[in-house]
Amino acid sequence: MPIHPPFRTCAGVLLLLVPSIGLAQAIGGPLTPLPAVPALAPERVELGRKLFNDPRLSSNASLACASCHRLDQGGADGQVRSLGVDGKPLPVNTPSVFNASLNFRQFWDGRAQTLEEQAHLVVQRPGEMGSDWQVVVQRIAADPSYRAGFAKAYGKAVDEHTLQDALATFQRTLLTPDSRFDRYLQGDTEILSKDEKYGYARFQEYGCIACHQGVNIGGNMLQKFGVLGDFFADRGNPTPADLGRFNVTGDEEDRHVFKVPSLRNVAVTAPYFHDGSAPTLEAAVDVMFRYQLGRTPSTDDKALIIQFLKTLTGEWEGKPL
Amino acid sequence: MRLTRRRSLLLLTTSAVLLASVLVYLYLMSKADESGTYTQARDLIRQIKQNDSQWENEILKARTSINYNYDPLVWPVVEMKRLWRAFESIETRNQHGNSPAWRQAYADYQQAFEEKTNYVERFKSHNAVLRNSLAFLPAAADGIQAQLGQLADADALRLHNISTDTYDLMLSSLEFAQMTTDDKAADILVGLNKLAVNKERLPLEFHAPIDTLSNHIALILREQPKVNQLLEQIGALPVAAHLDAIAMMLDRDERTALLVNQRYHFYLLVFSTLLVLLLLYMAVWLLRSFGEINRVNRALVVANDELEQRVARRTQALTQASAALQREIDERKLLESQLVQSEKLASLGQLAAGIAHEVNNPIGFVSSNLGALGSYFARLQDMLKAYRDAEPAIGPATLQASLVKLRSEMELAYILDDIPLLISESKDGISRVGQIVRDLKDFSRVDSSQDWQWANLHQGIDSTLNIAASELKYKADLVKQYGVLPEVECLPSQINQVIMNLVVNAAHAMGTERGTITVRTGCANDDKVWIEVADNGCGIPAQSLQKIFDPFYTTKPVGQGTGLGLSLSYGIIKRHCGEIHVHSEVGVGTTFRVELPVRQAQAAIR
């Protein structure tokens, strides 16, 4: 829906009444900019960073979190499906770790409610890191520098909970602020080109925004993959992972239901979808139009939307992803 | 005794611990049941409820708005979970969760909350696509209408019908979104069928938009009842009611706890009062026993003091007795030695007196003979002179010559001169022997040795000095400075012995150089006289000065002194009720001073 003048007036009034939120709502609609990186205990963050890069978390000490969630590759690894500890591809595509703390649940099927739970499951899952928390705790506790670090940061010995807390704490700092679109939301209306602004308008008009909204532009609801068409029949080769949330709840209604992924940094986190089946943004947008929106966009509109999506790439450690 | 004491101590401890435990128990029971916890818990429940209603509010908003931001539907879940965890951690401390009623209430809430979360998740999914399709519907329909308008060659009536059908379908769908009834659903199904029929009649380029439209309408037909059903289910979930139930239980428990507290408060009050009374009683009792103990203590202290004094007194008496005994022993020793000495002296005196007496006779006639010899010789001299004068008258010259020769050979002139001299010297010698004998007699006084006599001290001193003269004359000059003395009642031989001792000691005090011994006498007053024997000898060191009157104390080489001299002298003077003092300075000299009463107190002597 284009931004009509009366709406702007209305927004202006709102602006007077409720300054900051009013502005964000006025320009961004249901999209809001990233919050500031939370100020968490630095010792814990450091421990989490060390653990995140520590292959001792996996059974054969071959994989660290960072092996698949590469912070220099948009928080994922660019693979269709990353290889697990046994060298075999995992069931689903690796989602980005960036801004993951803002997702309402973790994993494609929303299995984990928290980052701690996510860490807990990934480390133990056979074929993924394939380890055992007892072993991990033993290995980490055997390292004097970790022992000292945990004693300092937590005032107690290394255990499963402190390990998971440290990992989660570190991941909560992995936000990518200052994307061009966020700066636009924060009031720098000149930073987007006309086409990019049109792209955003199309993004709303076509209804992408129905699911991809909120602070993470997605990541706050579950949705059936294939609302207006059977994606899996068309794709072929159904796998157990395609069942999505059904694997968690066993509820027929949850068949092919997945967490709506965040669109932040979407331009640098190809390939797309749980199966990594879309190698490019164009392909992904096509699939979305066909199976989720049930509409056929004009070529121009599609290009505009892709241009808009590219404004969602944020920065980490002062550099664009 | 000890066993009973230990047992009573045990009993006392046990009862004290028991009373204290009861007090603590009552105190804990009466403590205003962490009302902080209650308010906190109550507040948490209130906040959870508030979040719940905010959640429902957001659901309503999501139902009606287009392009809704679903984050506000996520936040209450997170917040409610957090609050519930806080509530649970408080309640675990409170131990409410143990009763079945509480467990039921918790379980009810948690189940309702889980279900609601699930329903809301589903609602979000379905509502998002439903809203999207509803928003898209007018545009989709408009697109088809516009395309229809561009069809110039077709049958206008049919086109109008198709247009009306499409419009009706759209309207039915929108109405369906407002009022989801089976009638409307049936209408839509009829409309969809009509649209499918119409599609076949239209050119190919119409197929895609019509398919899109019918797809979306089908979606609305499918999703709207589902959304409505979900909303009903959400509305039917008694989350708030369960929260209210928990709040009510909290209130009820708090009230019960308060009642219990009040009861225990009362118990505590009563118990405390009893304890205070007990304490007061014990305090009084203690004070009384303290008084008793103090009294006994004081009596004990007094008795103890008395005992100590008695012991001290006895000890003192004992010490005194022991000292007296020692003195007595010393005196006895002294007396014994004095006795020995005086016996010795007495026999010596007797011997001397005997000898003196015997010597006196020969001296008498030697002396008188010498006198006669002198006068005879004078007359003989005259005779001889006459003979010499008559010599020239002798006839024979030879006789005369032989007489002259004889006279010169025998040195008659010299002999005549010398004989008177010899006689006079002999007279002098014999008179000196007589003096010595007299002195001996004087010194010994054998005749009246142990009798108190009135004696001239000067006489005794002189006799003594004469006897000692041989002792003195190579060592010192003797100076006499006599005052005027009355006769003194004394044992003269003993006083002489004292003087002898002092003078001999003085002579011994002289070094290699010849010194001076001065003997002074004088009257202190009418009934006291004094004698001083002073020398300028080596003097007596201070440490020895204290011991010089002790028996057997001597500084002389072994065998030369008995160590009895001064001790004897001391004893003799004491016996005369007199005093003997010594003043000495090392290198300057020593002065002994003897003071004697002129008259002895008769009773003291006899």
What would you note in describing this structure?
The complex is a heterodimer of chains A (321) and B (606). Chain A has 321 residues and is mostly helical. In chain A, 42% of the residues lie in helices and 3% in strands. Chain A folds into three domains: 1-30; 42-172, Orthogonal Bundle (Cytochrome Bc1 Complex, Chain D, domain 2); 177-320, Cytochrome Bc1 Complex, Chain D, domain 2 (Orthogonal Bundle), CATH 1.10.760. Chain A contains 15 helices and four strands. In chain A, strands 1-2 form a two-stranded antiparallel sheet. A two-stranded antiparallel ribbon of chain A has the order 3-4. In chain A, helix 1 (5-17) packs antiparallel against helix 2, helix 3 (42-52) runs antiparallel to helix 7 (144-154) and helix 10 (194-205) crosses helix 15 (299-309). Chain A starts with a helix and ends with a strand. Chain B has four domains: 1-28; 137-236, Up-down Bundle (de novo design (two linked rop proteins)), CATH 1.20.1440; 281-450; 452-606, Heat Shock Protein 90, CATH 3.30.565. Chain B has helices at residues 2-30, 35-64, 71-94, 100-149, 156-178, 182-201, 207-236, 239-390, 397-409, 412-444, 457-472, 492-509, 542-545, 565-575, 602-605; strands at residues 453-455, 476-481, 488-490, 515-525, 528-535, 579-585, 589-597. In chain B, the strands form two sheets. Chain B has a five-stranded mixed beta sheet with strand order 2-4-5-7-6. Chain B is rod-shaped, with a radius of gyration of 79 Å.
